[in-house]
C-alpha cells in the first residue's frame, strides 16, 4: 500500500495555466512539474507510479475563497476513488469557525494551511484561537514549512517557529511538510525532538536531501514520524521511491512511512 499525503489539484478550467504560472515563480530551484494539476492527470500519474491513494491539500489563498475551494475538494473526495481530501480555511476570514464546522460535516480528513500563500507567520499569537479551534475538532493540520518561491526573501515557517507553535499546542496534530523546513540545512538535526506532535511529510525530500542525510533524520526521530508525500504535480513518486531505496529503509520502516503512519494520523 502506498499513500501520497501531499497532492495539489485544480479545477480543469484553471489547468495548465496555473501550473505554468507557479513554476515560473521559482527561478532559483528550477521547479519541475509532472502534470497539469488536473484530477485526471493526477490519477493517471498515480496509477503509473503505483500510488494507491492520494490526499488532496487545497489552499484558500484569500479570505473569500474558503467555500469554493472546499467545494472543489469535496467534489474530488466524492467523485474519485483515488483521493481523499483535507479542507482549508483562511486566517483572515471572519467566518473561519463556521467553515471549520462545515469541513467536519463534509468528512474531510484535516486542514491545510500555507503561511506563504496565506500571508502569516506560523507562530503569530493572533492565530492561536484558530489553532485551538482546529485542535478542538481533532483535525490534523498540514503546514508548508521552510522556503517557498512565492516569497523567497521571507521564511514564514522556520523550524524554530514551528517548534515554538507546536509546544503551545501539544494536542494539535501537526504535519510539517517538506521534512519540517524546505531547503533548511542549518538548524540542529534534532530540533524537533521535544515536539512529538509534529510529523514530517517527505515531499521534495529526493530533491533536497542526500540519502545518507535523510537516513540520519529517520534514525534521530524514528520512522513513525514520517509520511510519504510527493507534492504532486511538483513531485514524482517513482523518483521518490528510488530515493528511499537509497536511504535504506527496513521493511517495517517502509510500511510505516508508505501507509501505516498516514492511516493512523489521518484516520484512513
Automatic annotation (TrEMBL):
<dbReference type="GO" id="GO:0016831">
    <property type="term" value="F:carboxy-lyase activity"/>
</dbReference>
<dbReference type="GO" id="GO:0005737">
    <property type="term" value="C:cytoplasm"/>
</dbReference>
<protein>
    <submittedName>
        <fullName>Amidohydrolase</fullName>
    </submittedName>
</protein>
<feature type="domain" description="Amidohydrolase-related">
    <location>
        <begin position="3"/>
        <end position="267"/>
    </location>
</feature>
<keyword id="KW-0456">Lyase</keyword>
<dbReference type="GO" id="GO:0016787">
    <property type="term" value="F:hydrolase activity"/>
</dbReference>
<dbReference type="Pfam" id="PF04909">
    <property type="entry name" value="Amidohydro_2"/>
</dbReference>
<dbReference type="InterPro" id="IPR032465">
    <property type="entry name" value="ACMSD"/>
</dbReference>
<dbReference type="GO" id="GO:0019748">
    <property type="term" value="P:secondary metabolic process"/>
</dbReference>
<dbReference type="InterPro" id="IPR032466">
    <property type="entry name" value="Metal_Hydrolase"/>
</dbReference>
<dbReference type="InterPro" id="IPR006680">
    <property type="entry name" value="Amidohydro-rel"/>
</dbReference>
<keyword id="KW-0378">Hydrolase</keyword>
Amino acid at each position: 500500500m502506498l499513500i501520497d499525503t501531499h497532492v495539489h489539484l485544480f479545477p480543469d478550467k484553471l489547468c495548465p495555466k496555473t501550473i505554468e504560472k507557479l513554476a515560473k515563480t521559482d527561478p532559483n530551484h528550477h521547479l519541475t512539474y509532472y502534470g497539469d494539476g488536473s484530477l485526471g492527470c493526477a490519477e493517471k500519474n498515480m496509477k503509473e507510479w503505483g500510488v494507491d491513494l492520494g490526499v488532496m491539500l487545497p489552499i484558500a489563498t484569500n479570505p473569500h475563497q474558503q467555500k469554493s475551494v472546499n467545494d472543489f475538494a469535496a467534489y474530488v473526495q466524492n467523485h474519485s476513488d483515488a483521493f481523499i481530501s483535507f479542507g482549508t480555511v483562511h486566517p483572515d476570514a471572519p467566518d473561519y469557525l463556521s467553515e471549520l464546522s462545515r469541513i467536519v460535516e463534509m468528512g474531510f480528513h484535516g486542514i491545510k494551511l500555507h503561511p506563504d500563500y496565506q500571508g502569516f507567520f506560523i507562530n503569530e499569537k493572533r492565530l492561536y484561537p484558530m489553532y485551538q479551534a482546529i485542535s478542538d475538532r481533532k483535525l490534523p493540520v498540514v503546514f508548508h514549512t521552510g522556503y517557498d518561491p512565492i516569497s523567497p526573501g521571507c521564511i514564514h515557517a522556520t523550524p524554530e517557529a514551528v517548534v515554538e507553535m507546536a509546544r503551545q499546542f501539544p494536542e494539535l496534530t501537526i504535519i510539517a511538510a517538506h521534512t519540517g523546513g524546505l531547503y533548511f540545512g542549518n538548524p540542529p538535526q534534532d530540533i524537533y525532538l521535544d515536539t512529538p506532535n509534529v510529523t514530517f511529510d517527505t515531499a521534495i525530500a529526493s530533491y533536497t536531501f542526500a540519502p545518507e542525510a535523510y537516513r540520519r533524520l529517520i534514525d534521530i526521530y524514528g520512522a513513525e514520524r514520517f509520511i510519504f508525500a510527493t507534492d504532486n504535480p511538483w513531485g514524482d513518486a517513482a523518483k521518490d521511491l528510488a530515493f528511499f531505496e537509497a536511504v535504506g529503509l527496513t521493511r517495517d520502516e517502509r510500511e510505516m512511512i508508505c501507509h501505516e503512519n498516514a492511516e493512523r494520523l489521518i484516520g484512513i
